[in-house]
Amino acid sequence: MTICRLGQQIHASLIKNGSVLDVFVFNSLLDMYCKCGQSEFAMKVFQGISEPSSTSWNIMICGFLSSGDLMSAQKLFDVMPYRDVSSWNTMLSAYAKCGELENAKRLFYEMPVRNLVSWNALIAGFSQNERFDEALSTFSEMLKAGIRPDKTTILSVVSAVSTISSPGDDVVKQVVGFARAIGSVSVLTAVLDMYAKLGRIDDARAIFDEISEKDLVSWNAMISGYSQNQKPAEAIQLFRDMQSECRVKIKADKLTMVSLISSCSQMGALALGEWVHTYIEKFGIEFDEYLAAALVDMYAKCGDLDRSRRIFQEMPRKDVALWNSMIKALAIHGEVKETLKIFAQMERNSVTPNDITFIGLLNACSHGGFAEKGLELFSLMQSQYQIVPRIEHYGCIVDLLCRAGRLTDAYDFVKKMPIKPDKVIWGALLSSCRSHQNVELAEEVARKLTELDPNHDGTYVLLSNVYASVGKWRDVKKVRDQMKAQNVQKAPGCSAVELDGVLHEFTAGDKTHPRFEEIYKAWDEIVKRIKPMGYEPDKGFSLKNLDEVDKEEALNRHSEKLALTFAFISTEHSQHKPAIKIVKNLRICGDCHTAMEFVSKLEGREIIVRDRNRFHHFKAGLCSCGGYW
DNA sequence: GTAGGGTTAG
């Protein structure tokens, strides 16, 4: 504003002094007024120019476009006496940016001369409006016309390729070839990001190592690449490398922080997450909605729902993603009523929910056994918000019906779905068959699952659990043999517990921990004390085809029990006994769930388990999931 | 005139 006033003063004094204003001075004035957002006034000045040059016209067109006035820009463009390439390109990119690609295309083929910028503008237009195929076909048309792509072309094309679900190998190779030939940091970073988004994290790393003069963007792209490919430990390690290698030259920013926080929430590493939060405050990193959403998610996934609530409430501006984060946070903690309250608030604030909002809401209903409410929301989302349900939403509904015990309804729903059910849907049905001991349906569903993915370990484990739950040990063995024959390995269950900021990991039957003997003995003691309270080991959850004694032994060495016992014996003698927080990579086992209820009562300690689905707060013999899990 | 990195997801 002050700069604009200064400009006005200069303009006024030019007139006062009676200076001769040639077209160059006029153009500078036009440019100044346009850039200060005064395109209306610039237009008056423009009309006073006796012989405007084509640059004057271009500046005015640009000015109208930047103030969002496409109509005025178009009118000027139409009456221009002479159009140079820049005029055409300006108009073309304006159409491209606001998504009017039919107009952009028309202009592109109408223009008498085209240059590299014209091609780039059209390609970028397609790419930014998610019309990736057209971006690529325009690119190849450009190559056929004998035009050599530059940095800008490749940046657009690379970003188009990274968003296509499965780009052809030859396309990727060709683009990477051009990028390597250009070899600038920004282009290589774009390629790195592309590989990361395609899930080719090793290729991404190879490019990263190739960049000699890495800047903040390159580091951030690689860190977020790791984080988005479920490699949180690598993300954090890379951040440490960045700090030790170039602490002076490169300073982490809010984008770095977002990836770090997301990594912490994946690991359930609260202490580390708090450290990042402190870092943000200490270095005054700008706190925006992205960061807030990431923190809300992190604190919730690390078990501190109150911190999530506070951060959410203190944010003055809340975008959809932030609302979604809070909804999801409450959902995984089973706070169904509060989830619905937040959603009502969101509607009152006129924030339009999106597809992800409803995934969170349906999830909450499913975790709380609110089947009717969930079905109601499912139809609201279609009727009121015109959201076409994706496979994820159907998955939520199946899950919802299953957990509410409506197995038949769930199966009918799957049969009537307009989309082909995927393995997640069948998986939800199958695990529900386990809790309702429905062998017949389980076998049918398992067949569907094996058709879709013959090597998925979960199918075999679930089916074997169904058989085990009804004591069909011979069938359990059959499944196990099949697994062996197919060479399917069960993903090992892994539980971690954080003590004094150090993460201790355990796998089932783990004997690698230095204190394993002590841990085993301590658990056996606990079992002796909870059995009289009514605990009965549920051997149906033991996967192995062993005799009764061994079955109980295997059950006693599940990773979550080891983690619990370790936390327990490590804090037994300390005065302050905070809740024990365990993070498990798979779903918590049913027997472990029962055992923990008893332990929380026996020891008067709060136990919090985060499994791959949700949180379980065990307190005084009860779990917050109320049996819906 | 065209331009590389971020949150939420069964």
Automatic annotation (TrEMBL):
Ubl conjugation found in the keyword field: no
SUPFAM superfamilies: TPR-like (SSF48452)
Pfam families documented for this protein: DYW_deaminase (PF14432), E_motif (PF20431), Eplus_motif (PF20430), PPR (PF01535), PPR_2 (PF13041)
Name of the protein this chain belongs to: DYW domain-containing protein
Family: Belongs to the PPR family. PCMP-H subfamily.
Keyword flag Lipid biosynthesis: no
GO molecular function: mRNA binding; zinc ion binding
Organism in which the protein naturally occurs: Papaver somniferum
Domain of life: Eukaryota
DYW domain ranges (all copies): 534-629
Keyword entries, A-Z: Repeat
Each PPR repeat, start to end: 22-56, 84-114, 115-149, 184-214, 215-245, 288-318, 319-353
Gene3D superfamilies, per the entry: Tetratricopeptide repeat domain (1.25.40.10)
A GO BP annotation: RNA modification
